[in-house]
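SEQUENCE-TO-STRUCTURE ENTRY
===========================

Subject: a protein chain together with a token-level encoding of how that chain folds.

Sequence line: the amino acid chain in single-letter code, read from start to end.

Question of interest: how does this chain fold, as expressed in backbone structure tokens?
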Amino acid sequence: MLSGILVLDKPAGISSGQHIRKLKNFLTKEKIGHAGTLDPLATGILIACLGQMTRFSDYISVLSKSYQAEILIGKQTTTGDIEGKILKETNFIPSERDIKNVIKSFVGEINQTPPIYSALKHKGKPLYKYARKGINVEIKPRKIFIDQINFLSLENNILKLEITCGKGTYIRVLAEDIANKAGSLGTLANLRRIKSAGYNIGDSLDLDSLDKDNFRDKIIAPGDALNSLDDIQCRSEIIEKITKGQKVEMKLTSEDKFLRLFDKKRNFVGIIENCNGFIKPKRLLTIDSN
């Protein structure tokens, strides 16, 4: 059974789920999922997880991502992007200098309130379902981390930024907040994810270019797909203990909490946890996968 990832370039106008479901044309019984959702408006890197990699998607989605964002200055919409209805407008356009000063305050750990038009759940239902019915829901802010924001340009009321951030960041909200702090309004006009989990947009594939002959060649194997994690190789007796759920005393030079585990033949076994002089299984491939 196939397992691994495909780094896709999602087009605009389709949801992440709809896009990866096209891969079922090449699969038999394999599960399919993705790491890091993109809104229909957004384009760029979407990592599709196949087979057993669906069990490891959390370790990919937590890694930093980079975006190129275009923000329409002077308008605020219901959804935070140009697909929503206009709520407010202003003629005030902040200067390039003001924008550059403002974006500095958004770098680092900040609080962000998720948008009501999102798939986050409240009492078991996605928030967007409450929004569509006009029901007010209290949404608590949460901490996110912005690694870097680079100013690209401000022309014809369109502010272009390059943003590198951690998991859970809503660029729509960031666009609104930056514009508001600069004394204006803003809504997301375009968004393209250019980096994710160590992969660049140049590594991505046009799904429509795939066929049954080249599909398998494009799949990145599970061990390589998680190459953002350090790795260790262990002899067979240690592998056997780990696969039986036991912890093994081992002092590692790596300070990372999670590592990839390989056997001496360089077969990927899974992810182990590095804790207090011991290693223990965290998430493993099934035995028949190698």
In short: The CA atoms of residues 79 and 231 lie 42 Å apart. The chain has three domains: 4-63+200-224, 65-196, 229-289. Residues 4-63+200-224 form a domain with the Pseudouridine synthase fold (CATH 3.30.2350.10).
